[in-house]
Design brief:
Distance between the termini: 5 Å
CATH superfamily of the largest domain: Glycerate kinase, MOFRL-like N-terminal domain
CATH topology of the largest domain: Rossmann fold
Strand order of the largest sheet: 6-5-4-7-8-9
Strand content: 15-25%
CATH architecture of the largest domain: 3-Layer(aba) Sandwich
Number of strands: 15
Number of domains: 2
Amino acid sequence: MSYSVITSTTSSRSAALSIFQAGIKAADPYLAIKRCLSLDEGAIKILLDLDDPSQIRTKQWSKIHVIAIGKAACAMSKAAQEIIPAHLFSSPGLAVTNYENVTEVAQTKVIGAGHPLPDQNGYHAALCCAELLCSAQKNELVLVLVSGGGSALIPYPADAITLKEKITTTNLLLACGATINQINCVRKHLSKLKGGGFARLAAPADVHAFILSDVLGDDLSSIASGPTVPDPSTYSDAIAIFNAYSIWEQVPSNVQQHLELGRLGNLPETPKADDAIFSNCTQTLIGSNTISVNAVFNAAEQLGYQTQLYDAHLCGVARTVAETWVLSAKQLSNSDINHPMAFVAGGETTVSLKGTGRGGRNQEMALAFALAAKEHDLTGNWTFLSGGTDGRDGPTDTAGGIVNQDSLTRMIKAGLDPIALLNNNDSYTALQGSKDLLITGATGTNVADLQILLLHPTVTPTLL
């Protein structure tokens, strides 16, 4: 038997893009809602566990209130609107999403808001959410459709904190490289809606959340800061995060005072697992990074690659993670590769901002990979892709980057210094110069990031 090997830059790049798109498709929020929500003889039927069809919640609720928050809010709302009979809607639904993902949805008020930094539109959206939640009554259902980005999109600061102060606090955490779980821990203790806030305002109505996870490990209390679930974290935990990054003194004084009052017990904690407000709350995890990584794995295999999982929970500083991956690939010398190979990963890395350039964690990882490949002499035909499933990497118009063994040459020919650009956190300019930006546009979903490394034999072998 014989097989052909992808060796050209164009075909290898196309393969990586195709594999990446398979991961995005697996996180399609519209289809996910259709799989889990149905109508059965007048009763709403909710699938509670994707792996166990027998786990069902069903009831003939008198009214249904629909709130969608996150980057997939419009797609999830559209699916729910097509399933739930019009007479059950108590009022128009509410969908809050980032500006790039705003689309019209029937019988739904759609609000675009700021992400990753909250803005005034998000504050207005948060007030609308609170009003809808408080209107829900016993024997009614609040259906909450949650996806990544939901936390930043609905800022509702505690009374003593201004929106500007909350934005400043969020900015500090983003700039120092705090993880999404750490950022959300802080957000939950500065907010009226997060960390179980939806459940508290909706009681005594029933609540169910369909959740599309952008958090590694799928901790429901971290996804969009867990608006419908108990919060195990405390005010002390939030303060400890600032101290761990040595930025406590930079935190606005009103935020410091609020957290200290909470730590001392002078403010109520976020609701915990034993709180009665959760007795009528259920959740379904409808999509995750793990599901998309599996889809990427299968897509690579279908294209003829020998596929291996590099890391299902890729995390750490982007440029460090990139170099470690290069060193791992380096162990496979050209003579050892006699068949096209694919290494896939999923996760969410961080970036420590020290420069003034543009970019995001995926662009920085792609640029760092190309530089590390040169430094450590990773030879042969390789292609590396790192991209956000939401189509947006940091405050840019691109999902990430896709580089190969010729990327640095293209940057230099464009008059760029890739090392200086990386040091200035300006991966966008570097990848733009080499035409290696990964541009998908807003995808309408968000399950964190996906990475793909393709390695190819330098000579096409023939097996007999």
